[in-house]
Design a protein that fits this description.
single chain; 323 residues; alpha/beta; TIM Barrel; twelve-stranded mixed β-sheet; 11 helices; 12 strands; globular; binds S-adenosylmethionine; binds iron/sulfur cluster
Length: 323
């Protein structure tokens, strides 16, 4: 079969694999108050299924795999799974996105497993606001997790969803915190995934984020090292040399250059975060039908939309899709 990259007019080399829909937090912008109905255990891909999928993705030209969730670090057996990835697929790059709650426990395990970086989602430095937005989370655990990751040499990206009236006043302290711990801070536009929570009044477009940066004239756009740096625009402060990113997922949709495919914990593939329906690979994955899985992935990849706005209906929850 032709390589996935070759069969499309663009480079599709990045896959995000959600390995669980469970989470130890319930962020207000990601999950409804009552949580989401969990996928039954039997309907979740086993780690063996996931390894089989990764093997196929590698064949199709995928070069980077991000492990996400729900919260990936809550899944039972995660340490052994992470430890298998690099030895099994030495040519792939692996990354992980986490809410940081369990990072203190897993930081060293991640280093040993060959993970050089983690993305930690952190929207506020205020313990009360954190508890509010996550419906009960303890910010101290995240701070300890980040400190541990930094101390064992993992490079850290902090992803902050900026929400007007919630954390838009924390741009400066977040910048300072990121600088202190040597992390790359990225501000993310709040995406209208859950119709109940998102509103225009809460939305901060990248343009306004840029204006709200302290000393806005001192920040200059810089070239990305390569397209694997993802959809963020990067800026550098003229004096401090601090680098930051802004992910303008809403206002500067980057669908034309989007290089990613998304897989949910129950084996659905989505060509876009905003896809209404995924295509299930569960059965062919479970029965190890390599060609059938490949064909489905290629078909979905070919249907990748030119613009996510075509797909919008505000009824998706990020914890299912994996961000
Ligand atoms: N639990 C992990 C975490 O929080 O990092 C991984 C999964 S989470 C779904 C991945 C990312 O999606 C997080 O950075 C989160 O902030 C982001 N996210 C969730 N809902 C969002 C929304 N409506 N707009 C923008 N980002 C969102
Ligand atoms: Fe869980 Fe991450 Fe969603 Fe928050 S953003 S509820 S931590 S999956």
């Amino acid at each position: 079969m032709a390589s996935l990259i070759g069969s499309l007019g663009r480079c599709l080399d990045y896959a995000r694999l959600s390995i669980t829909d469970r989470c130890n937090l319930r962020c207000r912008y990601c999950m409804p108050e009552e949580g989401i109905p969990w996928i039954a255990h039997d309907d979740i891909l086993t780690y063996e299924d996931v390894l089989f999928l990764i093997d196929i993705l590698q064949d199709l030209g995928i070069r980077k795999i991000r492990i996400t969730g729900g919260e990936p670090l809550v899944r039972k057996g995660i340490a052994s799974f992470l430890a298998m990835l690099k030895p099994t697929f030495p040519n792939l790059r692996f990354a992980l996105t986490t809410n940081g709650i369990l990072l203190e426990k897993y930081a060293e395990i991640l280093v040993d497993a060959g993970f050089s970086g983690v993305n930690v989602s952190l929207d506020t430095l205020d313990p009360e606001k954190f508890t509010f937005v996550t419906r009960g989370g303890d910010l101290r655990q995240v701070f300890r997790g980040i400190a541990r990751a930094a101390s064992v040499g993992i490079s850290i990206k902090i992803n902050t969803v900026l929400i007007q009236g919630f954390n838009d006043g924390e741009i400066l302290p977040l910048l300072e915190y990121a600088r202190e711990i040597g992390a790359l801070l990225r501000f993310i536009e709040f995406m209208p995934l859950d119709g109940d929570v998102w509103s225009e009044g809460r939305f901060l477009p990248a343009e306004i984020i840029l204006q709200r940066l302290p000393e806005p004239d001192m920040w200059h756009f810089i070239e990305k090292k390569d397209h694997s740096e993802g959809p963020a625009m990067y800026l550098r402060h003229e004096k401090t040399a601090q680098r930051i990113g802004i992910i303008a997922a809403v206002t500067h949709h980057f669908c034309d250059t989007c290089n990613r495919l998304r897989f949910s914990a129950d084996g659905e593939i989505r060509s876009c975060l905003f896809s209404r329906k995924g295509t299930s690979l569960f059965l062919p994955l479970r029965t190890r039908e390599r060609n059938a899985v490949k064909e489905l992935i290629v078909r979905v990849a070919q249907e990748k939309p030119r613009c996510w706005k075509d797909l919008l209906d505000g009824e998706r929850h990020m914890s299912r899709i994996g961000g």
